Amino acid sequence: MRIIQLPDQTELGVEERPGSRLPAGDAFIFQHGMGGEAGQPLGYLGDQAPVPVVAVNSRGHGNSRAARADDCRFDVAADDVVAVADRLHLSRFAVGGISLGAGVALNIAVRYPERVSALVLCRPAWLDQPQPPETRQTYETIAELLESAGSADAALEAFTATSLYRQVLAAAPAAAESLRHQITRPGAAANTAVLRGFPADRPTNSAAAWAEVTVPVLVIGHHDDPFHPYSISQAYASAMPRSRLVTVPSKDVDRAGFAAQIRASISGFLAGQAV
């Protein structure tokens, strides 16, 4: 891990993993989900990525600085990634992300099309509008508990006692696990702005912009997760002219298959092989 300081004094943690080869001169910048950190996308790929991989801890994540409200927007996160690419002298790169990171990657592809050679949208969770009110309320509840409960343990105990949590747990245990992680992750209480800002934002201003993404696109989706609806993956794959949709099993159905199929799909896509 190393720290890159951007011109506005923002410090972002950056992890780099060498690849076995570098087709077309492009590296792959792969971004984590909300509440994650750079190790998450690197873990999705394992040690066999066919290209060099870079993962950036967005503001309020990992060992980057705590997030302010103005930091928690897709434009800001995307600009940070591009600034890191500049520091690494990557004039063009493949870009992708998981959930929140998928939104950041799409934002880059739309706003910086000359920089992007390929796009990977893994488990996207946003369309061209803020997330649904019930999703935003879930994250707002977690934020309020983190601010008022006095400790992560107390916040977790209070949240897991709610009917909201019990409903998610009954329907999708892996999604419930992800919600618990929003409370237990390092720095959670200092970064409640993340839980409010991103769900209220959107990666692009209009779905019409998706059709303008003309690079190869891999979309990875699955069923059985209320926070990553399969319909969102379908919408992106339908709109982007050079896209392919891969459906993987959910964690609740086949956790090992979930990880293995995502790894194989992304590695094959990056290597220019069939996925």
Mean pLDDT: 93
Query: What is the class of the largest domain in the CATH system?
Result: Alpha Beta
End-to-end Cα distance, whole Å, is 30 Å
Output the helix-strand order.
EEEHEHEHEHHHHHEHEH
Please, could you describe this protein's structure?
The chain is an alpha/beta fold and 275 residues long. Helix content is 42%, strand content 16%. It has 10 helices and 8 strands. An 8-stranded mixed β-sheet has the order 1-2-4-3-5-6-7-8, sandwiched between helices. About 2% of the residues have low confidence.
List keywords for this structure.
Rossmann fold; globular; 2 domains; 275 residues; 10 helices
Concise description?
Helices cover 42% and strands 16% of the residues. It has 275 residues and is an alpha/beta fold. The chain has two domains: 2-129 and 202-270, Alpha/Beta hydrolase fold, catalytic domain (Rossmann fold, 3-Layer(aba) Sandwich), CATH 3.40.50.1820; 133-197.
Outline the secondary-structure elements.
Layout: E1 2-5, E2 11-17, E3 27-31, H1 39-45, E4 53-56, H2 74-87, E5 93-98, H3 100-111, E6 116-122, H4 133-148, H5 152-160, H6 163-171, H7 173-184, H8 192-197, E7 217-221, H9 230-239, E8 243-247, H10 251-270
Parallel strand pairs: 3-4, 3-5, 5-6, 6-7, 7-8
Antiparallel strand pairs: 1-2, 2-4
